Amino acid sequence: MLCVHGDQHNYSGIGLSITPSYIRHDCLGNCSRAVIGDVVIYRASRDIGSGAPIFVPYFPAWMEVEERQGRLSCYDIYCICFLCQSQMGDKNYHDERLAAVGALFGTLPTTEDILQNPPKAIQELEELCTHLERTYVDHPTIQPRFHSAGKFALLGTCYQLLGNREKQLESSLRGLSALGFDAKVDAIGHLFIMRHGHYDRENVAKLAEMQASSLQADGLVTQAATWRLLAGKALDIRFGHWSFTDYSIFGRERPKDTSNTD
Ligand SMILES: [Zn+2]
C-alpha cells in the first residue's frame, strides 16, 4: 500500500507500508495510527478481543458521512460500516437536525446571556439538546452525536454558574455519551470511563478540561485529576492519529501521555 501521510493541510510524506496494508478501514475503527519517521504505530482505542480484526479509521468519524464517503472513494473504498449505514439511514433526521441547529443557533444564549440569566439559558439549551437527541436513530455507541456534544458543555457551564454540581456532572456525562463514551460518576464524584468514544478529540478534551478546572477551583483536587486524565487521553488519541507528525516535523514537544488503560 502506498500511503500519503497527512491530509492536504498537513502533508508529511509518502511511504510504502507492507504490514499496515492488511489493516482495513472502518469509520469508527478500534485503533488509531501514528507515523513517526519510518515507523507506523497502531494503538488500540478500545478493547479488542483475541483474534478479532483490527480496523483503523482513514478519516475522522465527525466528518459528515457524504464528505467521508467522498474522500474514501479516492481509495476505492465504498464504506458500509455501522456508522455509515446508521448515518445514511438517518438522512431525514440528519436534515431535520441541521435545520434545527441552523434555526436555533442564532437564538442560542451568548456567554453574556448565560452570565446574566443562567436559568433562562438552561431552559433554552435543555430544549435544544433534547430536540437534537430525539433526532438520532441509533444509540450513541453506534451513531455519535457531534452536533449536540458542545451544547452539553455549555449546559454544564450554566449549571456550574448556579452551583448545581450534580446537574453539571450530569451534563458532562451527557456530552461524553453523545460522543460514544460510556462513562459514569460514582457517589463521591469519581469518573470512570468504561468505553472509548468516537475520536472527537477536541470536544472531549475541551469538555474534560473545563470540568477539571471547575473542580480544581472548588478544591476537589482528586476529581480534577481524574478529568485531566481524560483530557490527556483525548489529546493523546488526537496527536497519536492525525496530528502526531506535526510534532516530529517542527520539533515541538509532544503532549505527555497520561493514559494508562489503552
Ligand atoms: Zn463507514
UniProtKB/TrEMBL annotation:
It comes from the Eukaryota. InterPro entries: Gramillin-biosynth_MTr, SET_dom_sf. This is SET domain-containing protein. It comes from Rickenella mellea.
